[in-house]
Each structure stands twice: as C-alpha cells, then as structure tokens.
Amino acid sequence: MQLLCLSNGHGEDVIAVRILQELQRHPAAPELAALPLVGEGTAYRQLDVPIVGPVQPMPSGGFIYMEGRQLLRDLRGGLLQLTWTQFKAVRRWAKKGGVILAVGDIVPLLLAWASGAPYVFVGTAKSEYYLRDEAGWLPNRSRREGWSGSVYLPWERWLMSRKRCKAVFPRDQLTTKLLSQWSIPAFDMGNPMMDGIEPENPQPIFYEPNAEQKEMQRPMIVTLLPGSRVPEAYENWQLIVQAVSGLLNTFKERSLLFLGAIAPSLSLDPLREVLEISGWRQQSPESISSNLQFNDPTTLTFTKKNATLVLSQDDYNLCLLNGDCCIAMAGTATEQFVGLGKPAIAIHGKGPQYTPAFAEAQSRLLGPSLMAVEQPNKVAEAIQKLLRDPDRLQLIAESGRRRMGQPGAARRLATCLMERFAI
Fold first, then answer.
1. Which residues are CB-contacts of 270 (< 8 A; sequence separation ≥ 6)?
2. Quick one: what percent of the chain has pLDDT higher than 70?
3. Which of its termini does the chain have fewer beta carbons within 10 Å around, N or C?
C-alpha cells in the first residue's frame, strides 16, 4: 500500500511524523510519502520519505486564522498559487491508487477528499471542549459557535462522512462521541500530542498525607513556556519575566526554580538580555545544586534572590515533567503540560498567535487546568489561590489527563488505520 500524508502546520507535522514512524514499524509497512502544506515541513526531515509537492513558508507562519491581516500577507506571498500547485500534486499522486492520511483541519481534509483517493483524517485543530464539557454547553462560548450542534461545521462533517473516508481520529473522547452521531467512522485512539512525554511519578503530590510539609522542604518549580514563533516569543518572554519577578516578591520564604523550555528555533541572547536587565545574574551550571539532570550542554543558569532560572533548548520533556505549574504563552506546549495533570497560568499577549482571544479559547479547551490573566502581575496571585485549593488541584489533574489522553496514541492510531484498510 502507498500512503500520502498531508499536514498543515508545524504542530501537525510533528503529530504526522509520529504516526508515520509507527506505520514504518508495522509488519506490512506502507510506502510513505508526505506533503506539508504550511511551511517547509522541517519535522519530516527525520523520516526518509519523499515530499511530493512544493513547500514554501508563508509570512503568517501558519496563523492566518488569527486575524485578517495575516491572510492578506499570505495571499500577497503566493498562498493561492502554492495551494493550487499542491492540489495538482496531490491529484497526480492519488492516480497511483494509494490512500491519504490528512492531519490538521479542513484544508488537508478537503484536499484528501478532492484527490479521489480513500482517506483518513486526524483532527488536531478542533475539540468539543471548546463548546461544551461532560456536563453540557459552556456558558461563555460565543453565540455564533455551536450553531450546527458541533464544533465541526456541517461541511466538515460531510467530508468526514463520505464513503471514501475510512476513519476519523478526533483528539478526545468527547469529540469522538459527538461525531459518531452523524454516521462518521470516528475512533477514540487518544491524542498523539502526548506521545513521548512519560511522567516518572504521575501521582500528584497533594494525594500524600504529609504533602504540605514536603512542599515547603523542596523548591517550587515553575516551567516557563514563551512559545516558538519569532519575534512573538521574545515579546512573550518579557511578560513572563515580569511575572517571575512577581513570584519572587510573593514567595520570599521559599526556594524557587524556574525552567525555561526554549524552542531550538529561538536565540538565547535576547532572553538572556531581558533577564540581566531584570537583575538576574548568570552562573556556571556547576555552581547550582539541583536534583535535575540536564542533558543540554548549552543550558544557561541564572540566580536572583531565592530563585534559580534555567534556560534549556534540549530538555523539553524534563521541563514539562518537573514543573509544578507553568507560565504559558504557547499552544502545543501548554496543552502537553496540562495533559500531565498540571495547572497552567496564561498571560494575554499581543499575538499574532497568543492573543487574548486565543487564550480565552484555549481556556475553554483545557477547562479548569488553564487560568488566563490579563497582566503579568496577576500570576503570583493565581498560583497562591491554587496552592490553597487542593480540591481544585485534584480536579485539574483528572481533567487534564481526560482531555489530552494517555501516551501511545500514534501507535494505536497507526494500528487502527492499517486494520481499516485490511492490510
């Protein structure tokens, strides 16, 4: 069997690669090809698969849905011509008689349908949690949302219910249940976004009888997630450092450890400059005592008052697994952190990705696990409230894991895909 994977965005590319890796391990592994529809598809470089059509970075970086100006910039940058050329490439490939794996939103789904080939769809962009939870409709959703009875619009459901659509893999159980009402072949295999992030100690500390005593004897660890988009991430970092300063002033009697999970695409120089202006002093990693074992040789370590701050570009999982909570201005990283059963505090940014509207939508998606604040100086107060409310922490732990699912989704999804095509 031949299989072409279509994906539209860096996060979607990463999820697609995880699925393709599992397909390669299958005893009857299909012959794979790919076409990243947004950007250059750098995630696919770790796979030995051909790219069957043109790729081109767009000015928006894939965030055209955030505001009209981004779409206009992409149109001027050749978006329509690129999409038409990619469509023709997909049609040519489909004539070989293979199947298509569409990962993302309606764009790859529409191309898969238009190709004339059988297809499956991995819906990464939408979840019913944007509109409802297990108890019913959310009161704070927009009036124009959910008018069709689902987060997926009628034309999207039509594409998913075609005979050539052999399987749909939504990102959570709630969405799977809703889609199944429209005769859509929806399967709950989990969310590949959580693959590869295995907690060493999944049991939250608040379940222990002496939790309060243990809490005060160890440093409070806060993960910092500024995002990966340039230059937005640098602007986000300035807000995050302001929030960190507020935590130092609030938790004066407690040792603090901040873990900056920095994307490899970012330069550490602007981040270091912001820290130094704020009074942080760089130290040699050897001079800092910590139980955490960093594998990144380029790690930068800073100290100020009762706190240590570490910047790492190669210890992403370590930063997520060890944080008690996080200050988040990111998309995928925030969802992964919440999926570990932990709380996240979001600060409204200027965008183009992490805007107040994005933060509000993300808070609906992640429910009680994400608290959005308008100003950095509100972060410390939000964390104080969390520490005083163990019942809310337990709710957050259960909700985050339920909404994001358990690791191993890519393997389960690949197995189901092969079974649907009776290979």
1. 234, 237
2. 89
3. C
| The pLDDT value given to residue 58 | 60
Q: In the chain, what are the helix, strand and coil shares in percent, each to the nearest 5?
A: 45, 15, 40
**pLDDT at res. 201:** 52
In this structure, what DSSP letter does residue 111 have? H
Q: How far is CA 53 from CA 18, 31, 175, 276, in A?
A: 21, 17, 32, 46
Whether the bond between 231 and the residue before it is cis, its omega within 30 degrees of 0, is yes
Neighbours of 56 (CB within 10 A): 16
Q: Give residue-wise pLDDT tens across range 267-308.
A: 999 999 999 999 999 998 776 666 788 888 889 999 999 999
- Predicted confidence (pLDDT) per residue in 93-138, tens digit: 999 899 999 999 999 999 999 999 999 999 999 999 999 999 999 9
pLDDT at 29: 93
The rounded distance, in Å, linking the Cα atoms of 233 and 281 is 22
User: Domain segments of the chain: what residues?
Assistant: 2-195+407-420, 205-404
What topology is assigned to 205-404 in CATH?
Rossmann fold (3.40.50)
Q: Using one digit for the tens of pLDDT, what is the confidence trace for 226-249?
A: 998 888 999 999 999 999 999 999
Around Cβ 337, how many Cβ atoms within 10 Å? 29
Element (H, E) at 245: helix 232-250
CA 344 to chain centre: 13
In sequence order, the 6+-apart residues with CB closer than 8 A to the CB of 1 are: 28, 30, 31, 98, 99, 421, 423
At 315, is the secondary structure helix, strand, or coil?
A: coil
Confidence class of residue 64 from pLDDT cuts 50, 70 and 90? very low
In whole angstroms, give the CA distance from residue 247 to residue 309.
12
**DSSP of 353-404:** SS-HHHHHHHHHHHGGGEEEESSGGGHHHHHHHHHT-HHHHHHHHHHHHHHH
